[in-house]
Design brief:
The structure holds 2 protein chains of 2 kinds. Chain A is of the alpha/beta class. Chain A has 9 helices and 10 strands. In chain A, the strands form 2 sheets. Chain A has a 6-stranded mixed β-sheet with strand order 6-7-8-3-9-10, sandwiched between helices. Chain A has a 4-stranded antiparallel β-sheet with strand order 2-1-4-5, covered by helices on one side. Chain A is globular and about 50 Å long. Chain B is mainly alpha-helical. Chain B has 11 helices and 2 strands; from the N terminus they run αββαααααααααα. The longest helix of chain B is centred in the N-terminal third of the chain and has 32 residues, at 57-88. Chain B starts with a helix and ends with a helix. In chain B, α3 (57-88) packs across α8 (169-197). Classes of the chains: A alpha/beta, B mainly alpha.
Chain lengths: 239, 257
């Protein structure tokens, strides 16, 4: 499998945040990780990205063990809840950031950034500074900044949670489009049931540091823990 | 009516700020100014031309003050920046921050008297290096306290993001952390400069009277009852802070906001 997470355990003092978490993910697929706040889903992403260290367990990406590598050596991009655009750089430079790290030529950078701006419908905002953008535009720039370096794995930590309903829906649609366009392999963390169903090719549910992976969307819907049945009942009773 | 009242208040505040400076300027150009005259009897540029005369002691004081203030501001801001980072992310942040406040518990003069013995033992008493070191004991913790607020969760997240994009610690510092810190570093530098520029007690006691800064020179002229030269020194003393305030307002404050 493209991503293999084996028996990851993490404790914060006496509290066990991740308990022997194991799963596998095929290339070019998105795994939704649904869970309530504090269940350990963000910690799991941070450990895969290398921002935090696991107490035990290992991670293999494309048949290479990455769990002992530094975050800048893993080639795994972590997208935070907030867009976190660099406030001193304009849209072009924000997107070009990863390419400059890789010391690509100015010509290559210009070409790639312009193509990315076009894909994300941001061409007219090239020279704008982050404070001049709306929430949705900021997230699109953050996507562009991550995608342009063509990482084998992207980790999305509730990237749309701060957006309002309409923009959130359009961003979800945009994600689906670019995931297909760029053959993205991603882990998509969310606490929103509908979002988990929409975004993931595979769905998992995290509770008290344990991750349960569903073999189909149907089994996810049928599991009472996920809250789908409650949601269905609610809408039925409303009629 | 409300607008007129507001304008009058603003004018009164402006007069309150400008009047002392105007009086000082007038005094620096005066030769005789005796009661009950509202204005000086004679105006002269004698005091101002004195600073261009060879062997005058004001010019050397200006350079000494500038050298000390720039060194103190530069060193305390640089050291404070890195120390504040260590403190901000340390498990015992609150205790370390509390310790940083310790030099401010005592007045600088009492503090200087307590430290004088050590400066004499280290042969630093009466030297510019000694005065710089003494002022750093005040300015460095101040810079550390001011800059601790910079190292917040967002800065940490920016660094993590740069790492996941493939950048090293050094790259994250050079391309993100430092550019974001520049406005705050400049404000801190200016404030440390002002602390040093106007410092009297520590400079007098550790400098042993041999390190004559402009602030000390003002007091010297006052004790000699030479109010015209004291006024001249005061005018010179407020020029750098005024320039710094102007730079601060024009170029930096909006970037910090």
């Amino acid at each position: 499998m493209f991503l293999e997470v084996n028996n990851i355990t993490k404790n914060y003092g006496a509290r066990r945040v991740l308990d022997e978490v194991s799963f596998q993910l095929a290339a070019h697929g998105t795994l939704s990780v649904l869970g309530k706040s504090g269940c350990g889903k963000s910690t799991l992403l941070k450990i895969i990205a290398g921002i935090e260290l696991q107490d035990s367990g290992s991670i293999n990406l494309n048949e290479t063990t990455i769990s002992s590598l530094r975050p800048n050596e893993r080639n795994v991009v972590y997208l935070f809840q907030e867009a976190l655009l660099f406030p001193h750089l304009n849209v072009f430079e924000n997107i070009a950031f990863g390419l400059r790290i890789r010391k690509e030529t100015s010509q290559q950078i210009k070409q790639k950034v312009e193509a990315m701006l076009q894909s994300l419908e941001l061409t007219e905002h090239t020279t704008k500074m982050p404070h001049q953008l709306s929430g949705g535009q900021k997230q699109r720039v953050a996507f562009g900044r991550a995608l342009i370096i063509n990482p084998p794995l992207i980790l999305l930590d509730e990237p749309f949670s701060s957006l309002d309903v309409e923009i959130r829906a359009s961003m979800q649609q945009l994600y689906k489009t670019i995931a297909k366009q760029f053959d993205i392999t991603a882990l998509f963390v969310t606490h929103d049931l509908k979002e988990a169903l929409l975004m993931g090719d595979t769905i998992s549910y995290m509770e008290a540091g344990k991750l349960h992976l569903y073999d189909s969307k149907q089994s996810f819907i049928e599991d009472a823990r996920t809250g789908v049945q409650n949601e269905i009942s609610f809408w039925k009773e409303l009629k | 009516m409300e607008l007129i009242r507001k304008n009058i208040t603003l004018v009164l505040i402006a007069i309150g700020c400008i009047l002392p400076v105007a009086i000082l300027l007038a005094l620096s150009f005066a030769q005789h100014w005796v009661y009950p005259h509202l204005l000086p009897n004679t105006f002269t540029s004698e005091a101002w031309s004195y600073i261009f005369k060879k062997g005058n002691n004001i010019t050397s004081s200006i350079f000494t003050s500038l050298m000390i203030a720039l060194a103190v501001a530069g060193l305390s801001t640089t050291a404070g920046f890195f120390t504040s980072r260590l403190i901000a992310y340390h498990k015992k942040k609150n205790i370390l921050l509390f310790l940083a406040y310790m030099p401010f518990i005592l007045s600088p003069v009492i503090f200087a008297v307590c430290l004088k013995y050590f400066f004499i033992k280290l042969n630093l008493s009466g030297t510019v290096a000694g005065v710089i070191l003494a002022q750093l004991i005040i300015a460095f913790p101040y810079a550390t306290i001011v800059l601790t607020s910079f190292w917040n969760l967002r800065i940490q997240q920016y660094q993590m993001l740069v790492h996941t994009l493939g950048g090293s610690d050094q790259y994250a510092f050079a391309k993100v952390v430092y550019p974001l810190a520049v406005p705050m570093l400049l404000v801190c530098f200016f404030q440390c400069f002002l602390i040093s520029w106007f410092e009297y007690g520590l400079t007098l006691i550790i400098g042993f009277g041999r390190v004559q800064t402009l602030t000390l020179r003002v007091f010297q002229f006052l004790t000699e009852a030479n109010i015209f030269y004291a006024a001249l020194s005061c005018c010179l003393l407020i020029i750098p802070p005024t320039i710094l305030l102007w730079i601060n307002k024009k170029f930096i404050l909006h970037r910090v906001a």
